[in-house]
Amino acid sequence: MHVIEVQNLTKDYGCGRGVFNVNLHVDKGEVFGFLGPNGAGKSTTIRHLMGFSKPDSGSTKIFGKETFNKYYEILGDVGYIPGEIALPAGLTGKAFIAMMQDLQHCHNQKQLRGMLDLFELDEKTLSGETKRMSLGVKRKLAVVTAFMSDPDVLILDEPTSGLDPVMQENFIGFIREEKKRGKTILLSSHIFSEIDATCDRIAIIKDGRVVSEFIADDLKHASRKFYKVTFRSPLGKTVFFERAKNKVPSLTVLSESDAEIEISAEDKDLNELIALLSDISIISFGNRKESLEDYFMAFYKEDKDFKGALK
């Protein structure tokens, strides 16, 4: 049994908005990355997973229990950070933490103190009213209250939005430690470095549909490479394209200018690629592995007016 499971989830808000036949699962001790831009369907999926909304069809389960119907049986063991932080007015930070401890039926002061120290929330800051707090402080407070009961499952929707770079690094380090302790983590984000640094598997969502799911290490060891070639003249670029048309079948053009191109090709075609360039006058030739951002942008290339696909 998967710890977190979404099966054929559909919620249609009309006009193409919502999520459609979304499937994903997260196993114990795994960090699962849910990657997509704002509006792609990440938060809608998570709200259903948290039991806040009823699906049109499909199901969302945690510990094998339907989240919409078994909400109160599940959430005591789940830490949740919402994408948009809305703290109740009229409370200090301290009072908000105390309220959340009561709701969670857990007063783990040692865990709480460690979280407050890690995210640099001191007594003075916590004495202030929540409505007067900056976005960064509100986000840190949300992170602390999500983790302070030491839950087994963590569902995190854009958890570092509003945090400064130092706090983002602290958060990434903390997630790695929680993974070592066997926690089950669903991390929704549009920040490539955050997903890349923490996740075992990744799903990409676009227009409410999961368009790809893969093991993170498979991408890091992918055979497709990316190259940038600068020719001495536009004529050299033209000659190269004429020669490469039938000799490098995996060649994809990512972008081009008068005398410069960015391309991708499989490892098996590298020798042929170098041979084609060997008697053409070029200024530079460099390569790099495919990044998570490269792979992600392949699915959004139409929106960004890219000139070719990455895959």
Describe the structure.
By secondary structure, the chain is of the alpha/beta class. It has 13 helices and 14 strands. Helix 4 packs antiparallel against helix 6 and helix 10 (234-247) packs antiparallel against helix 11. The two termini are 33 Å apart. Residues 304-311 have low confidence and may be disordered.
Question: Which descriptors would you attach to this protein?
Answer:
311 residues; four-stranded antiparallel β-sheet; disordered C terminus; six-stranded mixed β-sheet; 36% helix; 14 strands; alpha/beta
Task: Give a short overview.
This protein is α/β, with parallel strands linked by helices and 311 residues long. It has 13 helices and 14 strands.
> Helix share of residues?
25-40%
Order of helices and strands: EEEHEEHEHHHHEHEHEEHEHEEHEHH
> What structural class do the secondary elements suggest?
alpha/beta
Q: How can the largest sheet be summarized?
A: 6 strands, mixed
How many helices does DSSP assign? Answer: 13
Round the mean pLDDT to the nearest integer and report it.
91
DSSP strand content: 25-35%
End-to-end separation in angstroms reads 33 Å
- Give the overall shape, derived from the CA principal axes: elongated
Count of individual beta strands = 14
Biggest sheet strand line-up: 6-7-8-3-9-10
**Which ranges are low-confidence, i.e. pLDDT below 50, for 5 or more consecutive residues?**
304-311
